[in-house]
Model the fold of this input.
Amino acid sequence: MIRINCPFCGERDHSEFSYGGDASIEYPALDAPPEQWHDAVFMRENIRGMQSETWHHASGCRMWLVVERDTLTHEIQAVRPAHPAIAQALEDEA
Amino acid sequence: MSAKRLAQGGRIDRSQPISFKWDGMTLQGFQGDTLASALLANNEHVLGRSFKYHRPRGIMSAGVEESGALVTIGSGARRDPNVKATLQELYPDLEAFGQNAWPNVRRDVGALSGLFGRFFAAGFYYKTFMGLPPFEWGKGTGLWMQYEKIIRKAAGMGTASREPDPDVYDHAHAFCDVLVVGGGVAGMAAAATAAQAGLDVILVEQDHELGGDTLSQTGAGAAQRSELLSTLAASGAKVMCRTTAFGLYDYGTAGLLERVTDHLPLQALSSHTPRQRFWTVRAQHTLLATGALERHIAFGNNDKPGIMTAAAGRSYLNRYGVLPGEKVVVATNNDSAYQVAADLQQAGAEVTLLDARAAVSGAVCDAVAGIETRMGCVPMQAKGQHALQGLQLASGTPGNWTAGDTTIADLLLVSGGWSPVVNLISHRGVRPVWNAELACFVAPAVNEPVDMVGAAAGIWDTAACIDSGLRAAEAVIQRLRPTSTQQSAPSTEPVTPQSPAHEHGWENPILPLYEVKVAGKKLKCFVDPQHDVTTDDIRLAHQEGFVSVEHLKRYTTLGMATDGGKMGNIIGLALMAEALGKDIPEVGTTTFRPPYTPVSIGALKGRNVDEHFRCLRRTALHEWNLRHGATMAPAGLWERPWYFARAGETIKEAYEREAATVRQTVGLCDVTSLGKIAIQGPDATELLNRVYTNPFAKLPIGKARYGIMLRDDGFVMDDGTTWRLSETDYFMTTTTAHAAKVMVFLEELLQTRWPELKVTLTSVSEQWAGCAVAGPKSRETLAACMADPEQISDANFPFMGVRDITLHGGIPARIARISFSGERAFEAYVPSDYAEQMMDQLWQAAQRFDGCLYGLEALGALRIEKGHVTGAELDGRVSIDDAGLGMMASPKKAFIGSALRQRPELLRADRPQLVGIFPKNRAETFNAGSILCHADKIEGLGAGWVTAVTYSPALGHWIGLGFFEGGHQGQEGKTFISADPVRKGNVEVELVSPHMYDASGERMRG
Amino acid sequence: MARYSAWTVFKNGLTGQKGWGRAWRDPEPKKAYDVVIVGAGLHGLATAYYLAKNHGLKNIAVVEKGWLGGGNAGRNTTIVRSNYMMPGNRQFYEHALKLWEELSHELNYNVMFSQRAHISLFHSPGARDAAARRYNSMRLTDTPAELWSLEQLKKEVPHLNYHSARFPIIGAAVQKRAGTARHDAVAWGYARAADQLGVDIIQNCEVTSVSRDGSQVSAIETSRGTIQAKKLGFAVAGNTSRLWQMAGLGRLPIESHKLQAFVSEPLKPLLDQVVVFGVGGAHFYISQSDKGGMVFGGDLDWYKSYAQRGNLPIVQDTAEAATSILPCLGRVRLLRHWSGIMDMSMDGSPFICKTPLDNLYLNAGWNYGGFKASPASGWYFADLIANDRPHEVIQNMDVKRFERGVMIDERGAGPDPKLHG
Done:
């Protein structure tokens, strides 16, 4: 069981969350050409090791989180809210 | 072999005799016995048969490593095959049976296969059974499948019941600071120490009592156990016996199996008591005090009943009060068996001690004073018909044994050394490392808060084990409570206790010995006694190039039996190393996989079965629907009304009536399961405009709009209506199937892609109960329930209008004039608590117009007539154009999916597009799931397919929706084939517009 | 090299098994090969075999970082079926099944392909019709397929849960030619047969880098030295992205996820067919091995992972699915569970294709389906490498299909790798 330290709810089983995907993907503007969208939607670096990824606390606070996790060992180094302003607010608070 | 119960001694309760049945015979044992000890006390030797050769199998151990005494317990629906008799506690009227044998384990016809054993070498089945012998003539799999039938019957071990398991199981969860696995002295010491320091400790032990090896000791060991027990009891540690930590997973999570009632007679069970509990424990730190298991040595016929580990012999004697044999040979290569020999001699057996080593010195020699001891001597071949009767010895040194004399023996106890139980740490993906001095694998230090203590760390001496437990616990205390005011100085040592050689607890070094090979002697030596893997099989695997550990294991099936290789793996590795001319560590070890010991699937599932499997979602109107005659159908996790049959009606009659009634007067349908999302905030409009393909920027307040959203890849994700309640407040409905998916996607967009948008989303699916009121009389029906009916007059409330209203009794409702059926219709939502009141009012009103309740089947008929798409059409591979809704994709704005829907394949004109389908012969029916073909080419992948079919009361014949290459235009009047070879065969059909009824939409708008 | 047969088994039984030679050689890598395949799993070994057999190539090597067949070849639940319906997939998997039917004879190695029937349960009229579409497509392409009524299903598999299932079973779609095979034997059989045709199978040989000469691959650097290759093929499943990046090619439409598999203690025959179901978000498949273990599996662990070990939530989930459909399994004990790394693609369909480099070829993206596909995968990959052009059947199994918008997603799950189980 991976344990994810949700910034809002505390440490919880990963089964409370649903996995999103690679957080490093930058989605292009909606009116960007199909080639850019193709790369964002279909192409993956598929890192073996530490990667930024999104998780959704579906059975908790419903927040999307960015988790720095090693895909080989499952070790988590950091968790932050995916929403930059909320992440900033938490950081300021701390 | 002649074992017998002693008049005294042991931990059994002689005041509580227990009678039980073995293969129909009634036998006696005592409280505190295992099935194995009780059978041994009754002098029963042959308890099982091996997998391949059906050789007789007896008790080989006294614990989890048992590979011989596998039996079936119970009968009927509670029949439990493959139970290790060494683990089964005896209870009154326990019924046990031999297995994998006919007519019984003592006389087994299957043993004839042993005659052909010379042909059944490792992997022989890969080389034959392909075709007609002798040269495997033939083609295809026909002959193999005939052989397979016979092989399957011969294979397997016990027979499982085919009846549903009647027992219940529980899931439980726990958190703790320290999980200590193993209740031997090291574990007890560690748990007590950690708990005394205020840590939250759980100690689990698979046995029914604590003590580990000391349970089988007398004298000092027993005293140490008592002392630790009282310390532990006072420490506050939570102790769970009959509980196995079967797997170690990420983040200090352990899976435990607690056996709650397996030791109790059936009549003692209540229907509320679970048979077993599956615990998920999350620990800050884990100490593995899992002990060590004694190994066998491979020699001729070493699988015979009457041969067991030395520790088992001592356990049966000291713990269960059974003298396991009268003429006992103890064969060892290390010090540990000396005390066993001494104990047995003292209990009255005639003991001969064989030690493979040339000489030993020290206190061990004192222990066996008076016992015939033969140094440099090993067992070469066991003799005896079924069970052990004698033993031919060999003498010399490893690699240079010569055959010696034969001695009479009815029990042979073997100690080939000890293997620390490193299974759990292996689950963490680490490879155990070979310790040549101790001749065993030990765990390496790991990068996780898990430590090995006691014998599991290769420490053999009881006092040293206790010390290792104490030290490990102190280190954990320092880690978890660094500020704690422990008296002991902070440990500077690594948490993992090292085990320097002087500490391992033996006076004389072990002499590694895995196999007794004597030149010129053809011996059948077993490595894995359950699967009948012999030393020759290992060598054959080498000869054929299956030299990696994984190949060896898979080719010979070594270690794949129900003991998980606990008895034989090391011997197998050693033999492969020898064959390769390498050292054991160079050969490596196999990966131990969870579970440590087998776990019932029932426990893993807990109570989440039958109606509790994927718990049913009920709408707020669920009971109301049932009271009003609904037959329900599954819709995802929900159940929704399928149809409301009146007396004597078939489903077809019911839905035809319901659909016709909606078109004629009015019908009511529970639509509560639709997803509902409150979308609020200054940028709510912008969000909707980005996710829907059609424009939402100018949707007026008080209006609803049908919208389609695509996935990023440009294919249709979902559709639904969104209602504008105020400048910044929307109410979105989604399909039942995609409610969660849409919500998650919108949340993802707002939190990760478009954080600049100020919008909050709230799932309100559970908060609102909804009813579709559809039909020409829908306005009158709804109006009859309202305080102010004028609010929904055609003038005040045109098509796609949205407003709040009040139903009788002051019930607040939110309604929209939208239609799925194609009739004038409303969707009305009330807070879920008012659901039934709303339905009562609506139903009362509807009945005045001869209205009806309708379910999914009529809903389907109505929407098919209209050509409205649902999940049957929108199957994730369909573009908005395919669905005939291309005009809803705004060319003036960008939206999710707008870029990738421009990819060339999505723009092809000959893509399958939504069509309506009529049977050529209007009296004919056809089926959804058929393939649409050109009449002259009823083959291949066809030109389309049928997604939905219904009888249309409005049109008076069967109709369907489907997809056809290029759509229906230009195909009118032509004959196509709806091919359904798996059911109905071919039906001639024609293609029409999907809008088969009221194509202009007059009825719903007017 | 002794041919395997009842006769040689008999003969060796009499002569102490002395006559069996190595199943395959253990060659030192040569400096250069005409074709080097990376990955001695089922796909790589089958490719090498068909390159030698069908295309007469002589100078072929398969390099493997561990032991042949040590990855997903030995970690799957051994189901073989061809009930695919999307264009290309349909023909491809049916070709695979036809190769399976003769594979033991072809390889002179008993891969124990047991055509015991694959029974796919359905629980609603909608699911029945969706199955009908799939199985009708099979029938119209000359693949036997059936839809069973509930009555027929009860007769054939009487101990499924017909009484208290949360999702009542209403029937089943059946492919009788489908079944199971002995997974290790397939790897060993291909390895032995390829070896006999002169293919060098080089184990414990890890690729550490890929050397390029412009738009060509020139050589691979391995833990056993430099190996030059005129043509290079990747068949490394979950490790595809890493090799791809070694070749300097950036990203792929692949994510590596882990899938667990389970086996019970051995039992006398309890289930004679393969039974699968998917409903209510659950997904489950089970069969019984010839040794007697119930072999079963469910969903991915739902998060990307290169760790070959699973976690408890899916263990629990799979046990729930198992007992919900076969209630007698409650007392059956789980003996082992393990996991493998799946190369999940963005549409659940594989890649057998050319790459941006002229002499590099890709075989990947097998999702859950790699085992059953392996003979055809090797057959078509060999064809591609030998002829340097994709066969008609695999023309949409290229990485660029997402640029074109080709839709061959059997589930319609969309571009999310974890949804293609």
Q: What stands out?
A: The interface with chain A takes residues 249-251, 253, 280, 282, 690, 712-713, 744, 747-748, 750-753, 755, 894-896, 898-900, 902-903 of chain B (CB under 8 Å).
